[in-house]
Amino acid sequence: RAKQMGANQFRYYTEDMNASALRRIDMESRLRRAVENRDMQLFYQPVISLETNRVVGAEALLRWHDNEKWIGPDDFIPLAEETGLIIPLGKWVLEEATRQVRTWLDDGIDLRVAINLSARQFRDPQLGEHIVHALDRSGAPADRLRLEITESVVMDSAEEAARILGKLQSLGLEISIDDFGTGYSSLAYLRRFPIDQFKIDRSFIQELGRHNESEAIVIAIIRLARSLGLGTVAEGVETESQRDYLSRAGCDLVQGFFYSKPLPAEDFARWFADYSKDNNDKE
Ligand code: C2E
Ligand code: MG
Ligand code: MG
Ligand code: MG
To answer: Is 63 in contact with 261 (CB distance < 8 Å)?
Structure first.
């Protein structure tokens, strides 16, 4: 009987395995098709200067339109990384974001747009070419494009990363270290890295006012950035008191649901117009 149960368990186990392997294969082929058919869209979340209260930028965040619903990047970027689909997908993001920068500029909306790069994209020897090509084709100025890369991607073989970052910066782009504070940055390397900005991780921002340690970390990151001559941006700002705290702490820029969630480009332009109008009325 025990043997029989074992056999059953084995059968269920392999059926489970098969089911999840099939789901994965199915998702991979749907993702492949979506990349080919461009069933992808960039949403934009505003970035606001705490000094002027103006919108100075936007972060481009990828969504996949699949069967009438939106799938967020956390649910497909890892698979895109594993399968290499991230390379054509990332190229499309670059082209789409630079095109949007140009379109907004022509409409009088001057913003610095940030795009996210994953590990494999960052190590792609053709990244520089793709960026130059996207800038040329769109006519977007290089200094309106910002690249966000996480600490772990940068710290993993730091010498090579420093070289790549230097090359990207020499193209005129700004480099931001995303989710800063959650990885294991070597301060010695950080000092030598050609970077422009720390993006303080959402987890610290959301604990402001609740955990003294998070306040201490946020203050320390802002001080470190200052002394290295770098800017700071806080992500995931959801409340007025978080915003006020960051303002007192000397953080440069903020983004989060307190201002707006990520929006399709047309909605973003409408939001921008409303926000700018209200803001100018107050001046
Ligand atoms: P990230 O770069 O750290 O982006 C911030 C995430 O926080 C976004 O999630 C954004 O929608 C969310 N967020 C912004 N403000 C708030 C807030 O006030 N509260 C809360 N709870 N969340 C907020 P999203 O769009 O799901 O993106 C997740 C991650 O996927 C990104 O994290 C980024 O690492 C990656 N990603 C997004 N777009 C791309 C892309 O085009 N290429 C690559 N390689 N990765 C991407
Ligand atoms: Mg980011
Ligand atoms: Mg982040
Ligand atoms: Mg993140």
So the answer is: no
Reduced to 3 states (helix: H, G, I; strand: E, B; else coil), residue 195 is coil
276 dihedral zone (left: phi>0; alpha: psi -120 to 50; beta): alpha
Residues, CB within 5 angstroms of ligand 3 (ion):
178-179, 235
Whether the ipTM is more than 0.90: the answer is yes
- Please tell me the distance between residue 179's alpha carbon and the centre of ligand 4 in angstroms: 5
Backbone phi and psi for residue 250, each to the nearest 5 degrees, phi listed first: 90, 20
Check if the beta carbon of residue 183 is closer than 8 Å to that of residue 147. no
Cα–Cα distance measured from residue 57 to residue 253, given in angstroms and rounded to the nearest whole number: 9
Whether 194 and 175 have beta carbons less than 8 Å apart is answered as yes
Full-model pTM: 0.93
pLDDT digits 0-9 by tens, 131-163: 999 999 999 999 999 999 999 898 888 889 999
pLDDT: is 172 or 13 the higher one? 172
Rounded distance between C-alpha atoms, residue 117 and residue 124, angstroms: 11
Ligand 1 site-directed mutation target among 41, 47, 61, most atoms within 8 Å of CB: 61
Write the residue with the smallest CA distance to atom 16 of ligand 1.
236
Percent of the chain with pLDDT over 90: 77
